[in-house]
Amino acid sequence: MIALNKTIRLFLDSIGRQDEYEFYLKKFQSDRSACFALLCPDLGSIEAGAEVLAFDLHFLLRLELVPAILLSGPDAIKMQQALAVEPIFTFQTLEKETTASFIEHARSQEKIPVLVTDQLDLEAALLELLPETAKRVHFIRAGGGLKSEAGERLEYIYTHKENFQPLEKLEYDFPALGKKLLEERPGVHLSVTSPIKLLQEIFTVKGAGTLFRKGSEINHFQGLEGVDRARLVELLEASFAKPLKHESFLEGVSHAYIEREYRGAVLLEEHPAGLYLSKFSVGREARGEGLSLELWHEVQENHSALFWRSNVANPFNSWYDKQADGHHRVGKWQIFWRGVSADSISACIAYCCERGEDFS
Questions:
Q1: CA distance 138 to 134
Q2: What is the pLDDT of residues 270-286, one digit of tens each?
Q3: 251: nearest Cα among 219, 274, 229, 220
Q4: How many Å apart are CA 25 and CA 16, to the nearest integer?
């Protein structure tokens, strides 16, 4: 990874956490595609934020990350004219055979390559370019990430599963495009964000837009029969960045929800007040992909009464708070409950306080 000077690091610190942006920097710089990402702005985002976009792209060049911009469809020439006022951009008509050399030339000139076609729509142009040109696509719209009918930003759209909330009225059918691309070009990363949120979307786990995913295959086990224990333990220790003291607590698991490739898991134990959520684990590579939400959705669809504890320093607690009916702090533990009867809450709190720790 390149050495980050103080100015660059301070700017990245203003965007997100150091461990997150260093993780993504390393990931992007190891990619062997022609560029690390394709940016697909709409006309509104360029007219409203071309200067902001140019500033962020200057910063990416300083990190030795070169994206390419794709302008396609009937507004392509108008968007090119709007971007041409910024000297950081260099333009070429989209020709698949010369795209890689054009991007490399732009890199040597410390410019951002812009591919232009008014003959192809966005879907056709992306199908030509992915995944050789890039494995990441960020759609940039003036309105930013997609929202629900109620106006809340949706962090994830599951293109091959039933989505949890109905969408706002869109000027372009991004979900249909996302579904097509994920089917035809599996493994690509697709998201929608705004010009002013682009860097936050790129360098943080939480992101600042809407990520498109097919949706994960999550298996429900009664107890741990059929579970690959070695892979489960590996996931738990990697996710919590701590070794387990012992594996005996696994004998108490009554329900396990595990992603097919063991990238995430929820373990539940029986308790008179409901189910105790013993472990909620997502591997680092899967963070920011919405797997936590999918796991949680599966659990709450099947179990009405749950309680759990979390270290008060856990940054995930703000999300837990939104899912819980109530919470209570005791020492280093924040204790949460959902669907638990009022007369059982004190027993849940006592159980969480008395239970030993499973990690060293």
A1: 11
A2: 999 889 999 999 887 76
A3: 229
A4: 12
CA-wise closest residue to 276 among 203, 347, 192 = 347
- 253 DSSP β-pair partners: 269
Residues 204, 211 contacting (CB under 8 angstroms)? no
Cα 15 from Cα 9, distance rounded (Å): 10
The first and second tokens of residue 260, run together, are 């097919």
Tokens of 7: 């100015």
Which residue type occupies 133? Answer: T
Strands 264-271 and 274-282: antiparallel
Domains identified in the chain and CATH numbers: 6-213 (3.40.1160.10), 218-354 (3.40.630.30)
Q: 């189910």: which residue's tokens? A: 275
Nearest to 67 by CA among 50, 94, 89, 47: 89
Confidence of residue 139 (pLDDT cuts 50, 70, 90): very high
How confident is the model at residue 164, as a pLDDT? 59
Strand, coil or helix: 12: helix
